[in-house]
Amino acid sequence: xxxxxxxxxxxxxxxxxxxxxxxxxxxxxxxxxxxxxxxxxxxxxxxxxxxxxxxxxxxxxxxxxxxxxxxxxxxxxxxxxxxxxxxxxxxxxxxxxxxxxxxxxxxxxxxxxxxxxxxxxxxxxxxxxxxxxxxxxxxxxxxxxxxxxxxxxxxxxxxxxxxxxxxxxxxxxxxxxxxxxxxxxxxxxxxxxxxxxxxxxxxxxxxxxxxxxxxxxxxxxxxxxxxxxxxxxxxxxxxxxxxxxxxxxxxxxxxxxxxxxxxxxxxxxxxxxxxxxxxxxxxxxxxxxxxxxxxxxxxxxxxx
Length: 304
What we know:
- By secondary structure, the chain is of the alpha/beta class.
- The protein has helices spanning 2-18, 40-55, 68-76, 87-94, 104-119, 142-145, 149-158, 169-173, 179-186, 200-208, 223-227, 250-255, 259-262, 264-269, 272-283, 289-299; strands at 30-37, 58-66, 82-86, 121-124, 133-137, 165-167, 195-197, 214-218, 230-231, 244-249.
- The chain has two domains: 20-130 and 242-299, 3-Layer(aba) Sandwich (D-Maltodextrin-Binding Protein, domain 2); 133-231, Osmoprotection protein (prox), domain 2 (D-Maltodextrin-Binding Protein, domain 2), CATH 3.40.190.
- Strands 7-6-8-5-9 form a five-stranded mixed beta sheet. Strands 3-10-4 form a three-stranded antiparallel beta sheet.
């Protein structure tokens, strides 16, 4: 009798192990890894993706806080499954398109086609907001530096030793659309020693405390409102368009095709004003990014 019980116990254990990929309800456990880059907007959008997927029964692992280049490598190497990514980053850095594309639809379609064909990546829709790079100054410096990149170039060329600029590490390192490429494009005599790389969030504090004269920012940053800064106009259109898309590995989307519809609200509901407000709630009001994402999705009745 004891032997029979032992055998039944072993068989039951084997059976349970065989069902290791099943949940208690009998359904397959749907696991997915969501990635995000290392700034506020990405934390908010990544959290939205997590919450929407969890609402539909997915078990989500988050890998947030990666630099742009590292996030792309992680995506291509299957360490992450889904990532909010930018059309301008793909066009300028991933594929290095030689021509400047100012049409957001054309850029998106090119990136979507090339990444699918070359890397089995699926770009699912795009946001209406353009989170491109921008340069910010204190408003009391407008009379001296002007309101455009061209007027800034004139000021820098007259005062090359005086101008200190804070930029994030990605903007410092990028060859095609980074700070030194921008300076060359506008004919700025920007001294490399005066370009100071630091975390994105710290660029605002450095500018506010007069540790630098100029800071690299993003056009949807909530801190623009918090610090009441002046944004210079990219009057010769150096920077490309940076619309967000939800990008998934095709293998993952083939396995879970419902993901596209689940995450559709991210590209359909968030415009420029909404994104600035969401970022401001984090950077200006001190709320956690996940809380901001959750409140937004509940307001839209997308999660319980």
